[in-house]
Every structure is written in structure tokens, then in C-alpha cells.
Design goal:
398 residues, 5-stranded parallel β-sheet, 14 helices, Rossmann fold, alpha/beta
């Protein structure tokens, strides 16, 4: 994917927020990947970063003025016409609002209104500003027009607080810009992705669960949507922001997840079961909170539905393509191959339990009927891309 921006023109619009310093690193990353970067700074952005810095990084002067007698012609038309992709980094609440409502009162917004290129935005603002109904309405409007969102993510904010609103990291933003130039090879494909763990109630307060963060499934849903697929994400509890442009179905228990996945799988071309679904649940959850009245508590567990096995049993021909995950502590490949056959999967993503959960990267093997492809430890986004490459090549009927 790094080659997607090589020899392409990228219009980088820098908004006025403290995260603007990271836009310099985005520019550097794009140049490193071979892009030609033209930078436009808003007046507010100039309070945080200098055009001289961008000129040094990109080898091209930064643009700040809509009206400049020294520039022959219409600068906003010239810049927007050359761009293969436009990126707004950071995208402040003010910039998102102006974009959503078609305002064009400076060089940045006139360029964005004039461009026919795909647009990527990397929002950055305080959590309360991001969550405000006005901002969310603007985000929904822009997403409906095809604007692609990278982030925001949860983390430390400029205020010293923690929350959702932090700008995504420069490498991820550069990846998103590259994806915008990636062929839509999943266009017309319906993909169902399950993600996160499940919570099996012991009583109204406690549950049985696992360490799944949901990051792998969310990365799959995000990447599939970026490549043009229509995506349904069936998510158990997960501390990961939902990707833009994806239909999210929230569930809690394994039985709820089974109902949702099986319902959506009926019209899907591919189902990717990345969720860590509990194998067992308490047979009779207590209606009231259990009290600590003895030294031990015995729970009787019963089996949960095997969603992947049920999907395999219901398959007709080669639809839908089935991708399962095998998290093991030993005999990884042998157990993955056994799962592939027993559950009638097309692909099993095998990974060790000690590296599968919570982090942003993973080391996996892609196990199919005729090969095993071992991947080095890479980001879960990169793993998602390799899995989706297999979905693109899935067998087609008739």
C-alpha cells in the first residue's frame, strides 16, 4: 500500500489545532513514500506551525493566501485540480463544519470545495467537541458524501484529560491517504465482520468474559469499507471507536451475536468471525446480585452456540466465504487446519494467545486448504489487508 501515493499529488490542508505539529510528520511520511505534497495552511494553523517547515519537508512552498497577486490564475483551482487526493490534518470542529455546509472563505475551504479528488480527514478536538450533536451531524453529512475519516482515537488530549478526540498517528493517516488511492476492489461486496468478546451474565453485575479488545475485527471492518465493501460489524463489548461508513450492530452475549451474525450472513459474500465468542455461559444467571456468603462459588456452565460451525453448515456452494480465527496456546497450525475442515471454512487466521489480545499488532498464519502463509509481526491493520486480499480472490459462483 505504500506505493499507492508514489508519484501522486497530495493536497495537505492543515487546520488550526495543537495537533497541527503532527501534520508535519504526515507530510514527511508522504514524501518518504514518493508523493508530491502541496500544503495549504489556514490562518489558525499558522499559529501552531510555520509554512517554512512544510517547505523544508516537501520541497514546495506552503500556500496560505487565497488572494495573491504574485500567483497567476486561480490558486484554489490550480491546487485542487492537480490533487489525486486531499487530506485535512488536523480536521478541527470548525473545519468540519465549514466543509459540511459548503463554506468557502479562505484558500483551504475553496480548495476543498473545488476538488473532485477523494478527501480524507483526520479529526482532532476535545472529546466534548467531537461528541457534540452538531459535530456528529457534520461528520454524518460528510461521510454520506464520501469523505473518509481516519480517527479520532482515544488517548491523552491537550487539556491533560483522556478521551476520544485525539488525532490518529501520522503513519495511520498516511495509510488512510494511500487507501483513498487504492482501487475499490471490494466494491459491490457485502462483508459481515464480528469483533470483540462476549459477556455471559453471572448475575446483574458480574459476567464471564475474555481479553479481546475488538481491534482486529474493527480493523477488518474499517479496511473492508475503505476498499469499497458494504460492511456490517457485529460487535461485542469493545473499547474501540466504530469505523466510519460501517453499519454497527451492538451485542453483548454469544447468543445475541449468533442471532445477529446469522441474520446478516444470509445476504453476505463473506463472513469474517474475528470475535472471541465465549464457548460456555452460566446455565442460570442469578436475578439478584450474588452475595459473598461462602468461601467458594460453583457455577454450572452450558455450551454456547458455535456460530462458525453453524455458518459452515448453512453454506450453499461457495457463499458466503468463511474466515475463522484460531487463538491457541499450543499446536497452532494443526489445530487451525482441523478447525478449517471441521467448520467448513475457506481460511483460518491462526495466532498464539500470548500475542493475540489487546495490542495493536499481531503475528499470524493464514491457513487455507492448500497453503499456510506465515506473516511476521505487523499491525492489525496490515493483517486485515492480507485477509481482505483473500476475500477479493474468493471463488465465485457460476
Amino acid at each position: 500500500m505504500n506505493d499507492a501515493v508514489r508519484d501522486r499529488d497530495v493536497l495537505l490542508v492543515v487546520g488550526g489545532g495543537i495537533a497541527a505539529y503532527k501534520s508535519v510528520m504526515v507530510a514527511r511520511e508522504l514524501v518518504k513514500r514518493g508523493a508530491r505534497v502541496e500544503t495549504v495552511l489556514t490562518r489558525a494553523a499558522e499559529r501552531f506551525v510555520s509554512g517554512v517547515t512544510f517547505a523544508g519537508i516537501t520541497g514546495r512552498p506552503a500556500h496560505t493566501k487565497l488572494w495573491d497577486p504574485a500567483f497567476a490564475g486561480e490558486r484554489h483551482i490550480a491546487l485542487s485540480s492537480r490533487a489525486a487526493v486531499a487530506a485535512v490534518v488536523p480536521a478541527t470542529a470548525n473545519l468540519l463544519a465549514r466543509m459540511a455546509h459548503g463554506l468557502a472563505n479562505d484558500l483551504a475551504t475553496t480548495c476543498l470545495l473545488a476538488t473532485a479528488a477523494p478527501v480524507v480527514v483526520a479529526p482532532a478536538m476535545h472529546t466534548r467537541m467531537w461528541q457534540h450533536p452538531a459535530t456528529q451531524a457534520n461528520v454524518a453529512l460528510l461521510a454520506a458524501r464520501g469523505v473518509r475519516f481516519e480517527g479520532p482515537v482515544a488517548g491523552a488530549l491537550a487539556s491533560g484529560e483522556e478521551g476520544l478526540g485525539r488525532m490518529s498517528e501520522p503513519e495511520f493517516i498516511a495509510d488512510a491517504i494511500a487507501r483513498a488511492l487504492t482501487p475499490q476492489d471490494l466494491a459491490g461486496t457485502r462483508v459481515v465482520v464480528s469483533a470483540g468478546g462476549t459477556h455471559e451474565a453471572i448475575d446483574p453485575v458480574r459476567f464471564l468474559g475474555n481479553r479481546s479488545s475488538g481491534r482486529m475485527g474493527y480493523a477488518l471492518a474499517e479496511r473492508a469499507a475503505a476498499r469499497g465493501a458494504s460492511v456490517v460489524l457485529v460487535s461485542g463489548p469493545a473499547a474501540v471507536p466504530a469505523p466510519a461508513g460501517v453499519e454497527v450492530v451492538r451485542v453483548r452475549s454469544a447468543r445475541e451475536m449468533a442471532d445477529a451474525v446469522l441474520a446478516h450472513a444470509a445476504s453476505a459474500d463473506a463472513v469474517i468471525m474475528a470475535a472471541a465468542v465465549a464457548d460456555y455461559r452460566p446455565s442460570e444467571p442469578a436475578r439478584e446480585k450474588l452475595k459473598k456468603t461462602s468461601d467458594e462459588l460453583v457455577l454450572r456452565l452450558v455450551k454456547n452456540p458455535d456460530i462458525l460451525a453453524e455458518l459452515g453448515a448453512r453454506r450453499v456452494g461457495v457463499r458466503p466465504m468463511l474466515v475463522g480465527f484460531a487463538v491457541e496456546t499450543s499446536d497452532l497450525l494443526a489445530r487451525a487446519k482441523e478447525k478449517l475442515l471441521r467448520k467448513r471454512c475457506d481460511l483460518v487466521v491462526a495466532n498464539h494467545a500470548d500475542g493475540a489480545f489487546e495490542g495493536d499488532d499481531n503475528e499470524v498464519a493464514l491457513v487455507s486448504a492448500d497453503e499456510v502463509e506465515s506473516l511476521p509481526r505487523v499491525s492489525k491493520r496490515a493483517v486485515a489487508e492480507r485477509i481482505l486480499d483473500r476475500v477479493v480472490k474468493r471463488p465465485r459462483e457460476g
